[in-house]
Design goal:
Elements (H helix, E strand, L loop, with lengths): L1 H27 L15 E7 L6 H16 L4 E6 L7 H10 L4 E5 L23 H22 L2 E16 L14 E4 L3 H9 L3 E4 L5 H6 L5 E5 H6 L8 E3 L5 E9 H5 L3 H35 L3 E3 L3 H8 L6 H4 L4 H10 L2
Parallel strand pairs: 1-2, 1-3, 5-6, 8-10
Antiparallel strand pairs: 3-9, 4-7, 4-8, 4-9
Helix pairs in contact: 2-9, 4-12
């Protein structure tokens, strides 16, 4: 009897071990390394953060990208655009993309991105681009080739450059006809050292203020003025708190579409291809849209009472011509990169 009981116990133990092993094999599934972004039954979610309002250039870029991607990819995809800095300012949006908490954002290229890719401040070198067409050619060619590896090193997939436009000064103190008239003004700038060098060369004072706080800063007189493209000035209603617009076009400003690289790399190849093509299609659409409406915006700013001046641009060029040679700027932007751009224009 004792032997029979012992035998039964052994059989029970062996049976339990066998059933346990079988259960473990079933729970692993047929795809042990499957990424959650690529499961066919799951919706792939892409959150796009934008600081501007629904009519801002960055938001238009995001909407165009969304439309193009939805046309190209028929998989289970959910794209949500968060405008009006609802996910934070440009710094927070870019950090979110880097960390992977936000899949994608559209931000000013030379605004917050220099924190990770200093050479993006090539766009802050004043009077480097003479026309938009020249800027497009350089951005889509030599600049993309130079910067893309640097973006990837920082965990970003750079999808393309959209349009902000040539940047111009506004202020609420006086009309600006020459560079000398800038002396003494406090000007809001993006938080990047090269912008401080630009304003300093004009004998004005640079004050960093986040874009989503800029209207209030101008309204309360925390700063005398700011600088932005015409479309940004109009859609942000800066004319309500600024009297003078100076069309000096000191820099050409693009926006960058960036995606978390790990997120991108974890997507199916067909979706990666669709994302690449959607960005390629969206860029010229957005540029054309902004160009078409910029003259209308300028006229409406004039009609609203803004005093618009075309200054003696040569005085601004002369005052800022050696900025890229400054030691503090060379630590940020490789002077050989600047020379590459200059040579590419010839």
């Amino acid at each position: 009897m004792k032997k029979l009981i012992s035998l039964l116990i052994v059989l029970v133990i062996v049976s339990s071990i066998f059933m346990g092993c079988t259960g473990n094999e079933d729970t692993t599934g047929s795809e042990p390394n499957a990424d959650t972004n690529t499961k066919s039954n799951d919706s792939i979610q892409i959150k796009i953060a934008c600081v501007g309002n629904e009519d801002h250039q960055s938001t238009i870029m995001a909407k165009n990208f969304q439309e193009e991607l939805e046309k190209l990819y028929d998989g289970n995809l959910e794209i949500d655009i968060y405008a009006n800095a609802s996910l934070g300012g440009e710094r927070e949006a870019a950090e979110g993309v880097k960390l992977g908490t936000i899949q994608m954002t559209v931000v000013t290229t030379d605004g917050t991105l220099p924190a990770w890719v200093p050479d993006t401040q090539i766009m802050s070198i004043p009077y480097l681009y003479e026309t938009k067409e020249q800027a497009y050619e350089l951005l889509d060619g030599v600049i993309t080739e130079y910067l893309n590896p640097k973006f990837e090193e920082q965990g970003f997939k750079h999808l393309g450059f959209g349009e902000l436009g040539f940047r111009h000064f506004t202020n609420n103190i006086k009309e600006i006809k020459t560079a000398a008239d800038m002396r003494g003004l406090s000007i809001r700038v993006q938080e990047a050292p090269i912008w401080f060098a630009l304003i300093d060369s004009l004998k004005a004072s640079a004050v960093p203020v986040s874009f989503n706080e800029l209207y209030t800063a101008l309204q309360q007189g925390m700063v005398d003025g700011q600088e932005n493209p015409i479309a940004s000035i109009y859609t942000s209603k800066f004319n309500e708190v600024q009297k003078y617009l100076t069309l000096d076009g000191h820099t050409y400003a693009p926006v960058s579409m960036i995606m978390n690289k790990d997120f991108y790399d974890g997507l199916p190849e067909d979706l990666q291809s669709a994302i690449d093509q959607a960005a390629k299609n969206a860029v010229p659409r957005q540029r054309e849209a902004i160009n078409n409406i910029e003259e209308q915006y300028l006229q409406e700013l004039k009609d609203a009472g803004m005093i618009v001046t075309k200054p003696d641009k040569s005085t601004f060029i002369e005052a800022t011509k050696d900025i890229y040679k400054l030691e503090e700027v060379q630590r940020l932007v490789n002077p050989e990169f600047v020379e590459l751009i200059i040579d590419s224009k010839k």
